[in-house]
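Section 4.2 – Deliverable D4.2 (structural model, holo form)

The reporting period included a commitment to supply a predicted holo structure for the target in complex with NAP. Inputs used:
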Amino acid sequence: MDIRNTTSPVLVTGATGYVAGWVVKRLLEEGLTVHAAVRDPSRADRLRYLDDVAAQSSGSIRYFKSDLLEAGSYADAMRDCAVVFHTASPFVIDVADAQRDLIDPALLGTRNVLEEANRTPTVERVVVTSSCAAIYGDNADQRETKTGKFTEDDWNTSSSVDHQAYSYSKTLAEREAWKIADGQDRWRLVTVNPSLVLGPGLNPFATSESFTLIKQLADGTLKVGVPDVGMGIVDVRDVAEMHLQAGFNANARGRYITSGHNASFPLIAQALRDHFGDQFPFPKRTVPKWLLWLIGPFVDKRMTRKYVSRNVGLSWVADNSKGIRELGITYRPLAESAVEMLQQMIDSEALKPETG
Ligand code: NAP
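Output (structure tokens):
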């Protein structure tokens, strides 16, 4: 499918999301008609930023009311679409009930959307926004890999409803996606598996967990130190580009690790300090593993001893070469993503510098 010859509309689920915003923008820039599935299309004020993006592009946008947990609610939005981008899934870490708040919407939502694709004869391709969280659960899992690096052949087998529930929700959802895709032969499934996404957002009301990390590094929450936990980082605009390639490139097949940098909490803090200096109380130290093991569970209920022992002090390395080789993806520098994200928070007065 050549994007330049596509006249059919395309569907983006969860169009109000942080990642989806840039996907929608890129699709509109390509002149496409985007069917934006959102929970509440009557909140025109919350969608104005997407209208503005559409007005500045050659494409057009239409809103549809859909909910992951409401069977059949994607039918109108998907009608006549050639490509479905399924991005909707809750990305929150601190939840009251992991089954209700994470696993059900991720898993049942994926089933809801992909079964609708089975009923919609125009659909040729479905792109699911999965995650590196469906590839690994804890950094310790890296020891079990064949090459010492995470690849698209790896699956997260260490998460559960009680341990890394968000990662578990993404794993169950992606497995379900492949099961449904393998049961038919009309449309092709391609999954985009991003690591932690950073970079400026388009939606002024965004709630993605991505914002929490940068905010906490700058607002003093982590002033005493950060845990030395390795993680992948990728820019939100590079993730959007991967979605377009996954949706339209004839070579796109299977899963794509979408991660620009094998990084860590301390490295992100360092990139921010290098740019913003002492304007914010960025952490300067790492908290020793033994101390986190001892007091972590009392400070933050997610910092369990199991989490500490299987993640702190351990690196994270992934092989991102498949997307580079097959789809020509390039990645922005980590500092650009982190700095522009914090700068956006400063400009919108969500964060105020201590000095200057
Ligand atoms: P986000 O801004 O919180 O977006 C999540 C989207 O899902 C929102 O549009 C939200 O709609 C929608 N949603 C949640 N529950 C829903 C429901 N019951 N019915 C319909 N829509 C629902 O988070 P994000 O960071 O952009 O995440 C988007 C996707 O990327 C997710 O699949 C996430 O797992 C994946 N991902 C994110 C990262 C990252 O670092 N950000 C990394 C890897 C993968 P409302 O606006 O109505 O709440």
